[in-house]
Amino acid sequence: MEILAIETSCDETAVAVLEIKGQNYQVLANLVSSQINIHKKYGGIVPEVAARKHVENVIPLLEKANINKDNIDVIGIVYGPGLITSLIVGLETAKTLSLVWQKPLVPVDHIKAHILANLIRGNQGELLPIKFPALALVVSGGHTSLVLMKDTNSFQTIGQTRDDAVGEAFDKVAKLLDLGYPGGPIISQHAQKADKTAFDLPRPMIDTDDFDFSFSGLKTAVRQELAQIKVKDKKVINNMAASFQQAAIDVLIAKTVKAAKKYKVKSILLGGGVSANKELRNQLSQAVKKELKWVEFWQPDLSNTTDNALMVAVGAYFKYQQNPYKYKNYWKKIKVEPNLEL
Ligand code: KG4
Ligand code: ZN
Fold first, then answer.
1. Residue 233 contacts residue 251 (beta carbons within 8 Å)
2. 109 and 197: one domain?
3. If we measure between CA atoms, which residue out of 62, 33, 17, 88 comes closest to residue 312?
4. Do 138 and 275 share a domain, yes or no?
5. Residue owning the nearest CA to atom 1 of ligand 1
6. Span 113-160, pLDDT tens digits
7. Residue-range definition of the domain harbouring residue 233
8. I need a surface site. Which of 34, 139, 233, 241 has the fewest CB within 10 A?
């Protein structure tokens, strides 16, 4: 089966073509056109600008992907959650292709796609054989959730952030430290050789009985600490970046380990833009080795952590497989769902 996938839910325009035969896959195209340089000057994503850029980028990207339409069996499209005006561009493009080429169109949830990004490792190989039940920690600019999976089509949210997403907290703290946008990669860079114990920041909700998170208080604590410091030199900035990053990671790991024990999962999957964070990857991997010896830990290839269309192709594959007849002429029924919940 060959799947063409399009993703335009936020500020990256992405197109991928993935071939799957049994358990084997081959990536035929995986293109992302990033808008980071455009939104940088505004200090965050401007939805109207993002949507206009998707309009400019999506067709040239499809052309670059060198698609042979006769080989395409299924088209996958992200229909939510995300920015409404951005989502519409991708969906209308995909609907047009679906109608003109007479190919089934499968709507894919962006969050499920982030989780399923784990199944692809490198440009070709076998789809990762996940052992179920599995627990996924989804950490992105819009989400922080713990998701229980019984199989590749079953997702249940058991906890999520009550305010800011962890990626959003990275972005806001970077702003407080005058480091620019997006905050995640910059904070982790500045944190690299700094002292993560320099500032005693809170670990919000770390001991609560549920699996929810809260990151807005952590961001406020950073602001309050900074307000008390007169000279904000490089050392202070780096130490604050490291202290904040560690506080966020501590909470993410504590809740993930607790949920994995309670639900007796066989694997843990990491996903979403913040899963590019090397400290989170390393520390979570170590925690699983130490406290959950029987559990397999997986994290996506670094190139598939932030938004991409390859993960959407995987999502479309499993959904289509489950019910292939449903998606014939299905384009008529698909609407964008900016606030889509799992
Ligand atoms: O999944 P994603 O590309 O878009 C959303 O679905 O939100 O995630 C983007 C988020 C941003 O908040 C960005 O700061 C964060 O992922 N991020 C990181 C790193 N790379 C990207 N956060 C921490 N460390 C990183 N290395
Ligand atoms: Zn995302």
1. no
2. no
3. 17
4. yes
5. 273
6. 999 999 999 999 999 999 999 999 999 999 999 999 999 999 999 999
7. 134-299
8. 233
User: Residue 94 sits in a domain of what CATH number?
Assistant: 3.30.420.40
Q: What spacing in Å lies between the alpha carbon of 131 and ligand 1's midpoint?
A: 27
User: What is the rounded CA–CA span in Å between residue 176 and residue 222?
Assistant: 8
Ligand 1 centroid to Cα of residue 47, in Å, is 17
173 and 277 share one domain: yes
Ligand 1 pocket mutation, candidates 274, 299, 301, criterion most atoms within 8 A of CB: 274
Which residues have C-beta within 8 Å of that of residue 63, sequence separation ≥ 6?
none
Nearest ligand 1 atom, CA 140: 8
Distant-in-sequence, close-in-space partners of 27: CB < 8 Å, separation ≥ 6: 16, 17, 18, 120, 123, 124, 310
By alpha-carbon position, which residue is closest to atom 23 of ligand 1?
Answer: 184
Domain count, the chain: 2
Residue 156 CA to residue 124 CA, distance in Å, equals 29
What pTM was computed for the model?
0.96
For ligand 1, mutation pick of 170, 179, 219, 310 (most atoms within 8 Å of CB): 170
pLDDT tens-digit map of 199-220: 999 999 999 999 999 999 999 9
Residues 265 and 308 in one domain: no
Give, using CA atoms, the residue closest to atom 3 of ligand 1: 306
- Ligand with an atom nearest the CA of residue 172: 1
DSSP lists the bridge partners of residue 5 as 16, 76
